[in-house]
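WARN retry 2 of 3 for item q-0093 after timeout on previous attempt; input resubmitted unchanged.
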Amino acid sequence: MLPDFGFGNIEAELWKLIFISARIGAALVAAPIFGATSVPVQLRIIIAGAIGVFVQIWVPVTTPADLFSLAALIALVSEIVIGLACGFVLQLSFAAPVLAAEQISGAMGMAIATAADPNTGGQSTALGQYFTLVLTLIFLAVGGHLLWLRLVIESYRALPPGGEWMSADQALVIAAFAGEMFATAVAIALPVTLALLLVQMVTGVLSRSAPSLNLFSLGLPAGVLAGIAALIAASPLITDQFVALSAQAIDQVGRIATP
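OK item q-0093 returned
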Protein backbone atom coordinates (compact mmCIF):
# COMPACT_ATOMS: atom_id res chain seq x y z
CA MET A 1 0.00 0.00 0.00
CA LEU A 2 1.04 3.62 -0.56
CA PRO A 3 2.28 5.49 2.51
CA ASP A 4 -0.28 8.02 3.73
CA PHE A 5 1.06 11.42 4.74
CA GLY A 6 -2.38 12.97 5.14
CA PHE A 7 -2.69 14.72 1.75
CA GLY A 8 -5.38 12.45 0.32
CA ASN A 9 -5.83 12.34 -3.45
CA ILE A 10 -3.06 14.88 -4.05
CA GLU A 11 -0.54 12.50 -2.53
CA ALA A 12 -1.80 9.58 -4.66
CA GLU A 13 -1.47 11.66 -7.82
CA LEU A 14 2.04 12.67 -6.77
CA TRP A 15 3.14 9.04 -6.47
CA LYS A 16 1.66 8.33 -9.92
CA LEU A 17 3.52 11.33 -11.33
CA ILE A 18 6.80 10.06 -9.91
CA PHE A 19 6.18 6.64 -11.46
CA ILE A 20 5.33 8.10 -14.87
CA SER A 21 8.27 10.53 -14.81
CA ALA A 22 10.77 7.68 -14.30
CA ARG A 23 10.89 6.87 -18.02
CA ILE A 24 11.26 10.52 -18.99
CA GLY A 25 13.92 11.13 -16.35
CA ALA A 26 15.96 8.11 -17.49
CA ALA A 27 15.72 9.29 -21.09
CA LEU A 28 16.91 12.77 -20.15
CA VAL A 29 19.86 11.34 -18.21
CA ALA A 30 20.98 9.17 -21.15
CA ALA A 31 20.40 11.78 -23.87
CA PRO A 32 23.47 13.80 -24.95
CA ILE A 33 22.04 17.33 -24.74
CA PHE A 34 19.74 17.04 -21.73
CA GLY A 35 22.11 14.70 -19.91
CA ALA A 36 25.20 16.91 -20.20
CA THR A 37 27.14 17.46 -17.00
CA SER A 38 26.58 21.20 -17.38
CA VAL A 39 22.79 20.71 -17.06
CA PRO A 40 21.79 20.82 -13.36
CA VAL A 41 20.08 17.76 -11.94
CA GLN A 42 17.31 19.99 -10.55
CA LEU A 43 16.51 21.18 -14.09
CA ARG A 44 16.21 17.61 -15.36
CA ILE A 45 13.86 16.76 -12.50
CA ILE A 46 11.71 19.80 -13.29
CA ILE A 47 11.57 18.92 -17.00
CA ALA A 48 10.72 15.28 -16.26
CA GLY A 49 7.99 16.28 -13.83
CA ALA A 50 6.51 18.86 -16.21
CA ILE A 51 6.42 16.40 -19.11
CA GLY A 52 4.99 13.75 -16.77
CA VAL A 53 2.06 16.07 -15.97
CA PHE A 54 1.28 16.45 -19.69
CA VAL A 55 1.63 12.69 -20.21
CA GLN A 56 -1.04 12.13 -17.57
CA ILE A 57 -3.31 14.53 -19.47
CA TRP A 58 -2.57 13.47 -23.05
CA VAL A 59 -2.00 9.72 -22.76
CA PRO A 60 -4.35 7.31 -20.96
CA VAL A 61 -1.67 5.80 -18.70
CA THR A 62 -2.63 3.17 -16.15
CA THR A 63 -0.25 2.84 -13.20
CA PRO A 64 -0.10 -0.14 -10.80
CA ALA A 65 -2.56 0.08 -7.94
CA ASP A 66 0.13 -0.58 -5.34
CA LEU A 67 3.26 1.32 -6.36
CA PHE A 68 5.30 -0.31 -3.58
CA SER A 69 4.60 -3.91 -4.58
CA LEU A 70 7.07 -6.22 -6.33
CA ALA A 71 5.17 -5.99 -9.61
CA ALA A 72 5.29 -2.19 -9.47
CA LEU A 73 9.04 -2.23 -8.80
CA ILE A 74 9.57 -4.53 -11.80
CA ALA A 75 7.43 -2.17 -13.89
CA LEU A 76 9.53 0.75 -12.65
CA VAL A 77 12.71 -1.01 -13.79
CA SER A 78 11.08 -1.55 -17.18
CA GLU A 79 10.27 2.15 -17.38
CA ILE A 80 13.88 3.07 -16.64
CA VAL A 81 15.19 0.60 -19.25
CA ILE A 82 12.91 2.02 -21.95
CA GLY A 83 13.93 5.58 -21.10
CA LEU A 84 17.63 4.71 -21.10
CA ALA A 85 17.24 2.99 -24.48
CA CYS A 86 15.63 6.07 -26.03
CA GLY A 87 18.42 8.29 -24.74
CA PHE A 88 21.22 5.85 -25.53
CA VAL A 89 20.31 5.72 -29.22
CA LEU A 90 20.64 9.49 -29.34
CA GLN A 91 23.95 9.21 -27.50
CA LEU A 92 25.24 6.83 -30.17
CA SER A 93 24.52 9.36 -32.91
CA PHE A 94 26.52 12.02 -31.07
CA ALA A 95 29.42 9.61 -30.58
CA ALA A 96 29.99 9.16 -34.33
CA PRO A 97 31.45 12.67 -34.93
CA VAL A 98 33.69 12.28 -31.87
CA LEU A 99 35.11 9.03 -33.26
CA ALA A 100 35.65 10.68 -36.64
CA ALA A 101 37.39 13.62 -34.97
CA GLU A 102 39.71 11.23 -33.10
CA GLN A 103 40.85 9.73 -36.38
CA ILE A 104 41.30 13.09 -38.08
CA SER A 105 43.14 14.59 -35.11
CA GLY A 106 45.50 11.62 -34.95
CA ALA A 107 46.31 11.94 -38.66
CA MET A 108 46.83 15.72 -38.34
CA GLY A 109 49.04 15.40 -35.28
CA MET A 110 46.57 17.33 -33.11
CA ALA A 111 45.50 14.49 -30.87
CA ILE A 112 47.34 16.15 -28.00
CA ALA A 113 44.96 19.14 -28.14
CA THR A 114 42.22 17.93 -25.78
CA ALA A 115 39.46 19.68 -23.87
CA ALA A 116 36.80 18.72 -21.35
CA ASP A 117 33.70 17.21 -22.94
CA PRO A 118 30.58 18.87 -21.42
CA ASN A 119 28.39 15.89 -22.37
CA THR A 120 30.36 13.14 -20.65
CA GLY A 121 32.69 15.06 -18.39
CA GLY A 122 35.70 13.27 -19.93
CA GLN A 123 38.37 14.44 -22.33
CA SER A 124 38.04 14.74 -26.11
CA THR A 125 40.02 16.43 -28.84
CA ALA A 126 39.41 20.04 -29.77
CA LEU A 127 38.17 18.89 -33.17
CA GLY A 128 35.77 16.52 -31.45
CA GLN A 129 34.39 19.44 -29.46
CA TYR A 130 33.89 21.35 -32.71
CA PHE A 131 32.08 18.44 -34.38
CA THR A 132 29.89 17.93 -31.31
CA LEU A 133 28.99 21.61 -31.26
CA VAL A 134 28.11 21.62 -34.96
CA LEU A 135 26.00 18.46 -34.62
CA THR A 136 24.23 19.92 -31.57
CA LEU A 137 23.36 23.11 -33.44
CA ILE A 138 22.12 21.14 -36.46
CA PHE A 139 20.11 18.79 -34.25
CA LEU A 140 18.44 21.72 -32.49
CA ALA A 141 17.92 23.62 -35.76
CA VAL A 142 16.01 20.75 -37.40
CA GLY A 143 13.89 20.33 -34.26
CA GLY A 144 15.38 16.97 -33.36
CA HIS A 145 15.01 17.59 -29.64
CA LEU A 146 11.28 18.25 -30.04
CA LEU A 147 10.79 15.16 -32.19
CA TRP A 148 12.73 13.09 -29.68
CA LEU A 149 10.61 14.31 -26.76
CA ARG A 150 7.49 13.59 -28.78
CA LEU A 151 8.65 10.02 -29.42
CA VAL A 152 9.36 9.53 -25.72
CA ILE A 153 5.81 10.66 -24.95
CA GLU A 154 4.37 8.47 -27.71
CA SER A 155 6.22 5.50 -26.22
CA TYR A 156 3.63 5.51 -23.41
CA ARG A 157 1.04 4.45 -25.97
CA ALA A 158 3.11 1.73 -27.64
CA LEU A 159 4.81 0.54 -24.45
CA PRO A 160 2.41 1.34 -21.59
CA PRO A 161 3.75 1.22 -18.03
CA GLY A 162 3.43 -2.22 -16.51
CA GLY A 163 3.10 -3.83 -19.94
CA GLU A 164 5.59 -5.85 -21.93
CA TRP A 165 9.31 -5.26 -21.74
CA MET A 166 11.38 -4.26 -24.75
CA SER A 167 11.46 -7.06 -27.29
CA ALA A 168 14.56 -8.70 -28.73
CA ASP A 169 13.95 -6.94 -32.05
CA GLN A 170 14.10 -3.55 -30.33
CA ALA A 171 17.37 -4.52 -28.66
CA LEU A 172 18.72 -5.56 -32.06
CA VAL A 173 17.78 -2.12 -33.40
CA ILE A 174 20.11 -0.54 -30.84
CA ALA A 175 22.92 -2.98 -31.66
CA ALA A 176 22.49 -2.42 -35.39
CA PHE A 177 22.55 1.34 -34.96
CA ALA A 178 25.78 1.02 -32.97
CA GLY A 179 27.34 -0.64 -36.03
CA GLU A 180 25.97 2.10 -38.27
CA MET A 181 27.52 4.64 -35.91
CA PHE A 182 31.01 3.28 -36.64
CA ALA A 183 30.29 3.29 -40.39
CA THR A 184 29.10 6.90 -40.18
CA ALA A 185 32.25 7.89 -38.29
CA VAL A 186 34.38 6.37 -41.05
CA ALA A 187 32.35 8.18 -43.72
CA ILE A 188 32.82 11.51 -41.94
CA ALA A 189 36.56 11.09 -41.47
CA LEU A 190 37.31 9.47 -44.86
CA PRO A 191 37.67 12.60 -47.09
CA VAL A 192 39.98 14.38 -44.65
CA THR A 193 42.06 11.32 -43.84
CA LEU A 194 42.57 10.60 -47.55
CA ALA A 195 43.87 14.13 -48.06
CA LEU A 196 46.18 13.74 -45.07
CA LEU A 197 47.40 10.39 -46.42
CA LEU A 198 48.39 12.06 -49.68
CA VAL A 199 50.26 14.77 -47.77
CA GLN A 200 52.10 12.19 -45.71
CA MET A 201 53.05 10.30 -48.89
CA VAL A 202 54.41 13.52 -50.42
CA THR A 203 56.41 14.38 -47.31
CA GLY A 204 57.75 10.82 -47.23
CA VAL A 205 58.91 11.07 -50.84
CA LEU A 206 60.55 14.43 -50.12
CA SER A 207 62.33 13.05 -47.08
CA ARG A 208 63.71 10.15 -49.17
CA SER A 209 64.79 12.38 -52.05
CA ALA A 210 66.27 15.06 -49.77
CA PRO A 211 67.48 13.34 -46.55
CA SER A 212 68.76 16.65 -45.21
CA LEU A 213 65.18 17.84 -44.71
CA ASN A 214 63.79 17.34 -41.22
CA LEU A 215 60.71 15.17 -41.66
CA PHE A 216 59.17 16.18 -38.32
CA SER A 217 59.58 19.91 -38.85
CA LEU A 218 58.15 19.58 -42.37
CA GLY A 219 55.48 16.94 -41.93
CA LEU A 220 53.69 18.30 -38.85
CA PRO A 221 52.96 21.82 -40.21
CA ALA A 222 52.08 20.36 -43.60
CA GLY A 223 49.68 17.87 -41.98
CA VAL A 224 47.99 20.56 -39.88
CA LEU A 225 47.58 22.94 -42.83
CA ALA A 226 46.37 20.17 -45.13
CA GLY A 227 43.92 18.97 -42.48
CA ILE A 228 42.46 22.43 -41.99
CA ALA A 229 42.15 22.93 -45.76
CA ALA A 230 40.51 19.51 -46.14
CA LEU A 231 38.05 20.28 -43.34
CA ILE A 232 37.10 23.57 -45.00
CA ALA A 233 36.64 21.86 -48.37
CA ALA A 234 34.65 18.97 -46.89
CA SER A 235 32.49 21.11 -44.59
CA PRO A 236 29.39 21.01 -46.88
CA LEU A 237 29.64 17.21 -47.07
CA ILE A 238 30.15 16.91 -43.30
CA THR A 239 27.15 19.16 -42.67
CA ASP A 240 24.94 16.98 -44.88
CA GLN A 241 26.18 13.90 -43.05
CA PHE A 242 25.31 15.49 -39.71
CA VAL A 243 21.78 16.28 -40.91
CA ALA A 244 21.35 12.70 -42.15
CA LEU A 245 22.76 11.40 -38.85
CA SER A 246 20.24 13.44 -36.85
CA ALA A 247 17.36 12.15 -38.97
CA GLN A 248 18.62 8.59 -38.67
CA ALA A 249 18.87 8.86 -34.89
CA ILE A 250 15.28 10.08 -34.61
CA ASP A 251 14.14 7.26 -36.89
CA GLN A 252 15.89 4.67 -34.71
CA VAL A 253 14.32 6.12 -31.55
CA GLY A 254 10.95 5.89 -33.30
CA ARG A 255 11.54 2.20 -34.05
CA ILE A 256 12.17 1.60 -30.34
CA ALA A 257 9.56 3.89 -28.81
CA THR A 258 6.73 3.19 -31.28
CA PRO A 259 7.29 -0.32 -32.68
